Amino acid sequence: MIELKNVSKQYTLGANIIHALDSTSLTIKDGDFVAIVGPSGSGKSTLLHLIGGLDRPDKGSVIVDGIEINHQKDTALAEYRNRTIGFVFQTFNLLPMYTALENAALPLIFSDLDRKVREKRASVVLEKIGLGKRLNHKPSELSGGESQRVAIARALINNPKMILADEPTGNLDSKTGAEIISIFKDLSKNDGITIVMVTHNQKDASAAQRKYEILDGKIRGEEK
User: Fold this and answer.
1) 131 vs 193: CA distance, rounded Å
2) What is the phi/psi pair of residue 223, to 5°?
3) What angle do CA 160, 133, 186 make, to 5 degrees?
4) For a FRET experiment, which of 12, 145, 204, 223 has its CA 20 to 30 Å from that of 177?
5) What pLDDT digit, counting tens, does each position of 7-32 carry?
6) Is the model's pTM score more than 0.85?
7) 176-224, pLDDT tens digit by residue?
8) What is the dihedral of CA 32, 189, 142, 165, to 10 degrees?
């Protein structure tokens, strides 16, 4: 379970103070597919970064599985990100010189697994999300949707409990974007993976199990 309790975060930009989050609270149950929807600058990416341990709140608590992660040391947070979370972003962040298989296997490179074992695991994940015939293609040979699937495979490679997705369909056409959302729904329903997606796309958000609006750094109640 993910719990945000009265979380605030502000940034200084020149002479201005930006209140990215303002005493906001939210609870997300294990296995839920949750969409946080809001315009640019509403605080949704900041919220995702706090859940992911990429940043710390100025006030309040971020609790995951009973552990207040904002009080953890950097080494513990790095372990948390590696073991618990898969990240998916609007930009696919694939290495252009690597194949789909090699890109998907990247998070395992510092493990004690043999290269063949790493690549076998990556091939299984890529097959699962429909890229079994594109394993040896490089990003320049893949469509936008295929590239995002590789990014999702990379996020899944360590068997994470949750995926944090920041505008995952932002660079895709509507049909391809719907296919990516369908993958998230399947991962939540069939594999019990918690999906937290932030987006400004209302159609994508409506496909989630739960949808919340964020505005001016505050989460509004769940939208039915």
Assistant:
1) 20
2) -90, 130
3) 35
4) 223
5) 999 888 777 888 889 899 999 999 99
6) yes
7) 899 899 999 999 999 999 999 999 888 999 999 999 998 888 888 666 5
8) 0
CB of 34 closer than 8 Å to CB of 27: no
Above pLDDT 70, what percent of the chain? 98
| Torsion sign across C-alpha atoms 96, 51, 21, 185 | positive
Cα–Cα distance measured from residue 70 to residue 62, given in angstroms and rounded to the nearest whole number: 6
Q: How far apart are CA 47 and CA 21, in angstroms?
A: 7
Task: Dihedral sign for Cα 84, 196, 151, 127, please.
Answer: positive
Residue 193 burial (C-beta neighbours within 10 Å; 0-12, 13-18, 19+): buried
- Enumerate domains of the chain plus CATH numbers: 2-223 (3.40.50.300)
